[in-house]
Amino acid sequence: MIAAMGAKTTLVAGLAGILVWSVLVVAASRHIGSGDAGIGTMTLETPDSANPVVAPFQMTPEAGIPAAASAVTAAPLAPVGAANAAPPSVRPVQPDVFAYPVTPQAGALERVEARPFQMAKDPAVALLKTQAIARPMTIEAGLIAVGKATLQLEGLKPTARTRQCESSTGVPWPCGMVARTQQRLFFRNRTLDCALDSLSWQGVRVADCALSGKSVGEWLVENGWAEAAAGSPLVEKGRQAVAARLGLFGDDPR
Predict the structure, then answer these.
(1) DSSP H helical segments within the chain, as ranges?
(2) Most C-beta atoms within 10 A of its C-beta, which of 29, 100, 185, 246?
């Protein structure tokens, strides 16, 4: 009998616990439902192309920028000519003094007139056009090939490459060929500067040429590889070469 009563008591307690749990579940669900009612249904809005939404980060008054930032953005720009209204002062040129380039102590700039054109000291000296002859080809000592034309150096008589000279012992030697070789060695394929107005002519033309500032004709005459022409300013140099037995007037240098 006691066992039967204990079983009944356990059954009643279990049913009571289930009932309490059910009540708690119903109460909790009602509480959650009442909270969601305040939130409502959320709907997404698509932007209207006719009325675009201004992004919050844009610097416009409509975006809710603080008053200080709007004031800076809306500040009026200075006129273009305002910067030129008062020219900045520039420090005077003083090589011995180092200072900041712009100093308030300096005065206004002073305009200096341009210097007048000055003539050369010797107005009789004429300015000649020069033409560059690259990699000059030697025909003979004193003659240069310029394309199909020939350039003869001024102030001398070219030395024929077939010329024979007599040495101090009476033995002839091919001084003309040696003179041509000496001119080639002097050129060494360097560019000549010749007093010419152009490089287009036919036949033979006479002009002076220089190599690194040295007259080629003068070099040939003073070293005895060509004779000075009559009345040439190189006559005296030619006499000195003959007296010193240089070039054509000496022995075979080979």
Answers:
(1) 2-39, 67-73, 175-187, 216-222, 235-243
(2) 246
Interval 94-153: pLDDT, tens: 555 555 555 555 566 777 666 554 444 444 434 457 889 899 999 999 999 998 899 999
Q: 194-218: per-residue pLDDT in tens? A: 998 888 888 898 999 999 889 999 9
Direct distance between the N- and C-terminal alpha carbons of the chain, in angstroms, rounded to an integer: 156
pLDDT, tens digit (0-9, with 9 covering 90-100), for 142-174: 999 998 899 999 999 999 999 999 988 889 999
The two tokens of residue 137 are 């080809």
Residues contacting 74, CB < 8 A, separation 6+:
61
- What tokens appear for 60 in the block? 């416009």
Nearest alpha carbon to residue 196 among 103, 137, 130: 130
| pTM, two decimal places | 0.49
CB 102 within 8 A of CB 91: yes
- Is residue 171 within 8 A of residue 183, CB to CB? The reply is no
In three-state secondary structure terms, 245 is coil
Type of residue found at 22: S
Q: From CA 183, how far away is CA 221, in angstroms rounded?
A: 11
Rounded Cα distance, 216 and 252, in Å: 22
Tally of CB atoms within 10 A around 165: 19
Instruction: Please report the domains of the chain, with CATH numbers, ordered by start residue.
Output: 131-249 (2.40.50.90)
Q: E strands along the chain, which residues? A: 131-133, 137-140, 143-146, 149-153, 156-157, 165-166, 172-173, 192-194, 204-207, 209-211, 214-215, 227-228
**Side chain identity at residue 244, one-letter code:** A
